[in-house]
Amino acid sequence: MLPPEIAALFESSYRVASGTALFVMGAMAPADFAGQQGFRFDYDYTLRGEEIRREGRATGAVIDGRLYMITFEAPEIHYFENGLADYEAIVTSARIAPDS
Hints:
The protein is of the alpha+beta class. The protein has one domain: Protein Transport Mog1p, Chain A. The chain contains 2 helices and 4 strands. The protein has helices spanning 3-18, 79-93; strands at 22-33, 36-46, 53-63, 66-75. Strands 1-2-3-4 form a 4-stranded antiparallel beta sheet, with helices on both faces.
């Protein structure tokens, strides 16, 4: 799968699982992930029946034909920005163990 297809699958999965029609994908950008060239995209959504907007970020790569991705999301008010540095540290430290 190409990164735009991964983002489209991610969006449609969230729409179905959360029952939300309010889902906005941000632009996709290149990003390093586990020592490989990968991708990153931002998104936000609001669950049906709620007023709290959630922001999210996904970073990942397709490595040896497998999708590896780490996501982070939190309420936009305070929590997303507050936790973003910790998320980026986790993404930066990600490594893929070789198959045994």
